[in-house]
Amino acid sequence: MTRRFPVKTIGRLSLYRRLLNRLEREGRQTIYSHELANLACGTAAQVRRDLMAVGYSGRPAHGYEISKLVRSIGDFLDAPSRQNAALVGVGNLGRAILAFFAGRRPRLSIVAAFDIDPQKTDRTVQGCRCYPMEALEDVVRREDVDVAVIAVPASEAQRVADQLCAVGVRGLLNFAPTQLTIPDCVFVEHVDITTALEKVAFFARQYAQEDPDRTAIK
Amino acid sequence: MTRRFPVKTIGRLSLYRRLLNRLEREGRQTIYSHELANLACGTAAQVRRDLMAVGYSGRPAHGYEISKLVRSIGDFLDAPSRQNAALVGVGNLGRAILAFFAGRRPRLSIVAAFDIDPQKTDRTVQGCRCYPMEALEDVVRREDVDVAVIAVPASEAQRVADQLCAVGVRGLLNFAPTQLTIPDCVFVEHVDITTALEKVAFFARQYAQEDPDRTAIK
DNA sequence: AAGTGTGAACCTCTTCACAGCA
DNA sequence: TGCTGTGAAGAGGTTCACACTT
């Protein structure tokens, strides 16, 4: 599967938009690449390079018009009309994810949640309707879901992923601490929380060894 | 700050260990690089390259002894004695994180949690004691915490990060959807859930455009 | 003068390919 | 023979540096 755009650029564009949205709400009109870079903890060149993908040009010596830039990033990142996501697993993590997304992006929203536990289904969490797993196929088709978040225990994740792929989902965001085997035509992003903490712990130790007195405090 | 080891290698080593632990429990004795690669969704060359960091050699035509490999990865990744982590923010996300880690790794554990909400403090969640924020400094020093997980709303994240850095934490795992400004001597990993879903949505659309009939189903 | 857009250099990580070993 | 360890090539992503614009 050819990837026309660097995965990392897409991630940063999403971040830029979030930062720009805030600036826009604060009444800011224009911004320079180096300012946006500061906010995003990147470099000016990086920002400009990323923005090449969206096809909106700033004006030399004037910077970027925030409102137009936000719109351009949206046109590039978002689906032309709407894109619907589903969540599987309404545990603590699932609820946290619903909260992150509740009414945030108009063109991408989590329209349905699923769980095996009858206690958790047939009600609304963070404005999202929860269904039993049996309803998966019907709801996915009816609501035109093409992206799903997996927030179930590791032992269930592969089964859930198989079901999702079978009903036509094209992208998965997996929070379960297990690798998924899925077809090439489905994009998967694995957010591995356990691994992330082990990584932080490792480099925290590295840093402490190299700079025990924290001379690098800025 | 010089980084002696690639960040990605460290992440994968953590993954390899998890996979190997499972195999070991299942009674498996040895493994080849290409088998481990399959389980980890990588390549054999990648696995061998990653293992160079830990300094344990397999035997040609015999593969790696799983028990020794697990021990070597542990010696490389883990602290010599113990490493303690703290969690700030005992909401849904925080509780999910505690569940992920509860008694998983003997040499790295979340020993304390903090929250501003008095309803959530002075009790135990997933075997982890919850303290009010005021206790942060005392507990961090007493328990020798050097890594922290931030699972608070975006509006609080920077303040919390500052407090954590001030009391000597050397690594942060940030789940809040906001960039943190922190000293160079502190390692930060940002897990941006919103961005992750937007990325998945984008590439799901890309894949769907390039392969509308899902011929790539393997 | 000050900032953008971008070719080219650079760097980092991944994959190839093969010598060496059991 | 079959697999490991690793130098070298390759791919992907980042930064430099500068022509160009206002």
Keywords, please?
homodimer; DNA-binding; 218 residues; alpha/beta
Overview of this protein structure:
The structure is a homodimer of 218-residue chains. With 218 residues, chain A is of the alpha/beta class. The first copy, chain A, has helices spanning 7-25, 33-40, 44-54, 66-77, 92-101, 136-143, 154-166, 193-210; strands at 30-31, 64-65, 83-88, 108-115, 124-125, 128-132, 145-150, 171-174, 187-190. In chain A, strands 5-6-4-3-7-8-9 form a seven-stranded mixed beta sheet, sandwiched between helices. In chain A, strands 1-2 form a two-stranded antiparallel ribbon. In chain A, strand 7, helix 7 (154-166) and strand 8 form a beta-alpha-beta unit. In chain A, helix 1 (7-25) runs antiparallel to helix 4 (66-77) and helix 2 (33-40) crosses helix 3. The radius of gyration of chain A is 20 Å and the shape is globular. The model of chain A has no long low-confidence stretch (mean pLDDT 94). Chains A and B meet through helix 1, helix 5, strand 7, strand 8 and strand 9 of A and helix 1, helix 5, strand 7, strand 8 and strand 9 of B. The structure holds a DNA duplex (22 and 22 nucleotides).
Secondary-structure topology with pairs:
The structure is a homodimer of 218-residue chains.
Chain A: H1 7-25, E1 30-31, H2 33-40, H3 44-54, E2 64-65, H4 66-77, E3 83-88, H5 92-101, E4 108-115, E5 124-125, E6 128-132, H6 136-143, E7 145-150, H7 154-166, E8 171-174, E9 187-190, H8 193-210
Parallel strand pairs in A: 3-4, 3-7, 4-6, 7-8, 8-9
Antiparallel strand pairs in A: 1-2, 5-6
The first copy, chain A, binds a DNA duplex (22 and 22 nucleotides) through residues 6, 8-9, 32-34, 42-46, 48-49, 51-52, 57-64.
